[in-house]
Amino acid sequence: MGILEVKGVGKRFGGLQALGDVNLSVQENTVHAIIGPNGAGKSTLLNCFVGKLIPDTGSVMFDGQSLLGRTPYEITQMGVSRVFQTPEIFGDLNVMENMMIPCFAKRDGSFRMHAFESVAEETDLVEKAEQMLIDVNMIDKRHMHASSMSRGDKRRLEMAMCLVQDPKLLLLDEPTAGMARADTNNTIDLLKEIKEKRDITMAIIEHDMHVVFSLADRITVLAQGTPLVEDSPDKIKDHPKVREAYLGETQQ
Amino acid sequence: MDAILLQTLNGLDKGSAYAMIALGLTLIFGTLGVVNFAHGALFMIGAFCAVTMQRLFSISFETLDPTQTDFLGNPLKVKTPYVESWFGPEMGASIIDWSVPLAIVFSIPIMLFVGYAMERGLIKHFYKRPHADQILVTFGLAIVMQELIKHYYGANPIPTSAPDAFKGSFDFGTMLGFDPNVIIYPYWRLVYFAFSAIVIGAVFAFLRFTTFGMVVRAGMADRETVGLLGINIDKRFTIMFGIAAAVAGLAGVMYAPINSPNYHMGMDFLVLSFVVVVVGGMGSLPGAVLAGFMLGILESFASMNWIKDIIPGIDQIIIYLVAILILLTRPRGLMGRKGVMED
Amino acid sequence: MLGLDKKDMKFLLIVTFLTLATPILLQPFPEGSGLAQFNAGYPDLMQRFAIFGIFAIGFNILFGLTGYLSFGHAAFLGVGSYSAVWMFKLLSMNVLPGLVLAVIMSGLFALVIGYVSLRRSGIYFSILTLAFAQMSYNLAYSVLTPITNGETGLQVTLNDPRILGQQVSASGNVPGTHFFGIEMGAAQKIAIGSWEFTFSAGYYFCAIIAIIAFYLSLRIFRSPFGLMLRAIKSNQQRLNYTGLNARPYTLAAFVISGMYAGLAGGLLASMDPLAGAERMQWTASGEVVLMTILGGVGTMMGPVLGAGVIKYMENIFSKINDQVLHQWFGWLPDSLESIVIWAAEHFVGSGWHMTSGVLFMIVVIFLPGGLVEGGQRIKSYFKNRRGGDSDDPEHHPKQAPHVAE
């Protein structure tokens, strides 16, 4: 029984069958990559996990509970964090403030009126946030305006904001899309480090094969809305159907 | 039955004004992506074009008329408008009489210019700014325009009369077989409705059948792609701003005889027109027109006595109530497109 | 102290001192001098500074922190005024029950309007609030006349019950408003040399409430709640995916700012016990927006500063007339004088609204950060000149601006 169990998920947009009968099981403490060509339905699938879309058929179970019909913030409160394609951070706030918000959300739930306490006096949470910043090597940037940072740093901050909540499942939507090689490698190193240091499950949607093969424990290949095959990275590399459908053109 | 017909008719003139203003607002929003809080002021300026025209035509000189004397035996001073001395008394009198319709001719270039100047001088710099900033700056501009008019024309409403030919009322009832004097409708309101139908029709035809209009419509749907085709969309959008201003101005010119123009009429109409745009669906031209007439007629129905007896004050709030209901149940309005102003 | 850090405490003390010393500070010109007309140290005007300061501080909690632009906040001001006057009519002329009811009623009103309006954001939210406010205004003028007394406005009369207080004062008039015996209308004039200072009970009452209101908003700005509100303005998507529900936060901010507006409305009625529907008109809503952006959206001091500047300018500009203009520009050659006076006439006297419109545009176009940002820019300009080019932005990444300036 995996931590995320997807059974028979289908989604149709008008005449387009975006997803048809997707079955997927993400095991605890593994990195599970979902790959596939453009339009294979990777993003649609991810959006079904986080409450942005509700599938027409099938079920999505996380840790024994259904995710369908829940709002994004409820799902996050259950322990699912998401990293976006372009880093989504609070650009108007500084790095430390960015970190404090997930800390409060983790401790206080989706809404709690703390109108007269001071943020600075929440020493436990401040320490926790600082420790996380140390872990991702950003402690010297704690007072920086988040929007003025480089893209790599923004990604790092976003990751830290997710990790400080100790999620059970981290969803990554093309975390290296549009990044330069050096930034991509940094991100891979960061993710590897996270994987080693923490008990965390990651589901990663990715285009970049380099990223996928250096991180994933298990890979699902998606084509035209249905899973083509699911296996370990080594087997996937040599799988004839995958070569044909997805890697085919790179082999020529 | 006759009451329904009467209220529908009564709602038409206000509905026409809402529709024309809302049409312009939507054009500006759809093309330039700007929320124009000064659009009501353009409507007001249009109405004051009519006032100015009537005043200009009536400028007179005084002569002593020896044939008429006052009770002391002195000759009377008689005022003769210049137009009467230039074109002869009859022609002159009818020019004055027809000054409101004549004002249309003069108001079009004026409004086009005002719109053009506004877009080039101010709005242009606000394309990339947040909607809140656009609202605020155009709100400021609206106050300035309104105060300018107040400064020169005073705070009181200025009665502006329609041509004598349209002064009477039309008895719809007898035509349709009801009792006489049940459904009476002033001619001018009928003229106003017909006029608005023509203006709205002209705008739609322009957008539909000219290449210019085609490009604008394409630009409204997908600005980037049209820009990539090497078409200078911005220039066309500027012209559309002028056209939207002219439509609002024309709505104002012809509205002058229905309600005496005053300096704050623009703001009154603006708030309602925005509600109309939202009900129709932000960015939908037919939606704006439809919602304009619909709300105008609804407002007229709500002001019927027996309805007011059931729900007191409903006539004051019906439009807002409908808007709130629609916004909550159909966030995109009646005919709104997906992805317009959704955040 | 008081739950504030050192810097904020200092800030609060400065604000308190300035507020309490206002009757002296705003009276810099001796009586009878040509500049005396620029004095602002009289009770009526100073009360307005404090009251509209409260209004703007509250508005800023919503607009400044969450970015939701409400165009209907005047409705809460009106509700506050009506509630307070009703208390004066029914209970007593003591302002306390009036203010309490004003805050409660406007809070409830804001809860209803906010609950509906906050289902939408952006321009839709602005229009919804505007629609609600216009609706309230129209109703106050028409159907609600038994409660609002329509066009005449709600007033206290000799026939009101006032079950807990006196119905008629000793002199046979309607008694004045008071706070446990301290008459709001009472004032002490002190002359020092040719200067004359007026210390009014009403002003100090408003001022103390304004300081408390300011203190509370400072606490909100520094609290986790305030942080969440700023996060809403910055990125709602991320907020959602951090496990936070934005709506109750924005609703809470909306209600709090509505209560501030109600408090301001109640104070207006406490200083002058009448309430009219025009207080709810959308131009009044526009005014508080102007105050906030003029001072600086999202800053602590900005709204107060904005409210002060607007009310001061309103007062000064509306007083200036032809005669004054001729006095000022008399030294110019005649032809030039008449041109200058012709131009100036648009902006003074009843033309004050024109000035406010122009001000609106100028601020939005040239100074989106308001006066506070303008001040900071000037400060950093001089700093840069003194410190040479060591403040090269390339090598000193931008620091987050501190919200308290």
Brief write-up:
The complex is a heterotrimer of chains A (252), B (343) and C (405). In chain A, 38% of the residues lie in helices and 24% in strands.
Describe the secondary structure blueprint for this structure.
The complex is a heterotrimer of chains A (about 250), B (about 350) and C (about 400).
Chain A: E1 4-13, E2 16-26, E3 31-35, H1 42-49, E4 57-62, E5 65-66, H2 72-78, E6 80-83, H3 95-108, H4 123-135, H5 151-163, E7 169-173, H6 181-197, E8 201-205, H7 209-215, E9 218-223, E10 226-231, H8 233-238, H9 240-251
Parallel strand pairs in A: 3-8, 3-9, 6-7, 7-8
Antiparallel strand pairs in A: 1-2, 1-4, 4-5, 9-10
Chain B: H1 2-32, H2 39-57, E1 60-69, E2 75-81, H3 82-87, H4 89-97, H5 99-121, H6 131-153, E3 169-171, H7 172-176, E4 184-186, H8 187-209, H9 211-221, H10 223-228, H11 233-255, H12 265-280, H13 285-302, H14 305-310, H15 314-329
Antiparallel strand pairs in B: 1-2, 3-4
Helix pairs in contact in B: 1-8, 1-11, 1-12, 1-13, 2-5, 2-6, 2-11, 2-12, 5-11, 8-9, 8-11, 9-11, 12-13, 12-15, 13-15
Chain C: H1 6-20, H2 22-25, H3 43-66, H4 74-90, H5 95-117, H6 122-141, H7 145-148, E1 154-155, E2 178-179, E3 182-183, E4 187-192, E5 195-200, H8 201-222, H9 224-234, H10 236-240, H11 246-271, E6 274-275, H12 282-295, H13 302-319, H14 322-329, H15 334-345, H16 352-366, H17 370-386
Antiparallel strand pairs in C: 1-6, 2-3, 4-5
Helix pairs in contact in C: 1-8, 3-8, 3-9, 3-11, 3-12, 3-13, 4-5, 4-11, 5-6, 5-11, 8-9, 9-11, 12-13, 12-17, 13-16, 14-15
